Amino acid sequence: MLADMPPSLSLWSSAARIAAQTPASRNRYVDFLRALSIVVVISGHWLVAAPYVVGGEITLNSMLAYEEWTQILSWLLQVMPVFFFVGGYSNSVSWQAAMRDQRPYADWLIGRLQRLAAPVLPLLVVWTLLGIGLYLADVGSGIVTVGSRMSLIPIWFLAVYIGVTVFTPLTFAAWRRFGMAPFWIFAALAAINDVLFFAIDLTSTSWFNYAFVWLAVHQLGYAWRAGRLPTDWKALLWSASALAILIVLVTLGPHPFSMVSVPGAGVSNSSPPKLPLLLLGLVQIGLVLSLETPARRWLERPRPWTATVLVNSMIMTIYLWHRTASVIVIGLAILLGNLGLTLEPGSGTWWLARVPWFAAYLIALTALALIFGTFERSAVRHPPPSAWRQVAGAVLICSGLSFLALKGIGADNWLGVRWFGVLLPLAGALLAGVNPLPRSKQTRS
Length: 445
Prior knowledge:
The protein has one domain (45-444). The chain contains 22 helices and 2 strands. It has helices at residues 7-20, 28-48, 63-66, 73-77, 80-100, 105-117, 120-136, 141-152, 155-166, 168-178, 181-200, 209-225, 233-251, 275-290, 292-298, 302-313, 315-335, 348-352, 354-372, 387-407, 419-432, 439-444; strands spanning 49-54, 57-62. It has a two-stranded antiparallel ribbon with strand order 1-2. The radius of gyration is 22 Å and the shape is globular.
């Protein structure tokens, strides 16, 4: 029956069936926030993208650089702190369940790595093949580098989140032993790094803020799960206090206003993360906690909960491929005589044109999600590799993904590909025992 349905209807029916089986004890708001944060991030990337053709040359810039006032949008659309906050809650639930069932760390970790790492493997393979194809067609590596960097920027998040996940047993043990103290320690270390960065231009240690800032937010997820965070007017007070400090930092202090990187700007609040990003996370967390009670009642309804289940079933796929979808659409627009690419960014016509551009991006992303979403539902291998193999594999995966997010895939070497960056995550996935095959392929074999 499901095989005769269009893919979209089949996915909705499957999600509805899973949604109907949700136990009453599940906090549906966690899943909703996870889905919402990814959707907002994707929308933000698409909204500020400003491809523009002048004199026959295309520039892939950002509206944040064209129109300074648009940087306020980054305060609304930079919601990665919510994802890490939700990640702390989810990792707390799953790790506590593993300890209760006396499952070893290796059994727990392989499930997390499988869900996180498997969806990125086809993305790397596709871009590698594309890079080789363009190299053989005698297309300059610069085009591949620009296109792949634009497409692979989202994988920075995956590299960081995998690292945070690997350390869950240690950070959770610290939470159980010391409560909120680890959060304050991570926050203090992030603040110290900022002082060193701005006072004596010490940039090397600032990269540790990828750990300090995101681990701090992750710790708050543990506190939420334990019922230690307010969910009423006190949460709004917390949010307002963080907002006040944030405004002081970006108006009277040395930090930039935008919460994401702006092309051409010398300093970024997000790369590497700085204290304003942590404060923005506190603002957002206070807001979402204040809405938890009515939101959980709303999510008892079938339609919003089914939509939440559907997005979460392929959440990594849509996140990892959304920039590739936009690159595909921009490429087609170039082939069609720079269709829609000669509108001046920031003009009224340009803003009106965001509607068809969004529609085109969404169509491309839907097609990619239907093709590659099955990799996200691949089965975990049993028995899993040893814990040390999985951790070592995770290190390789994170290193390779970080390298590609910074450099892209194109290079002036053999077949025009940065093989170091591509092979590291592939080798890491193999070492960690991540299953690269979608479930449907395994069923038929």
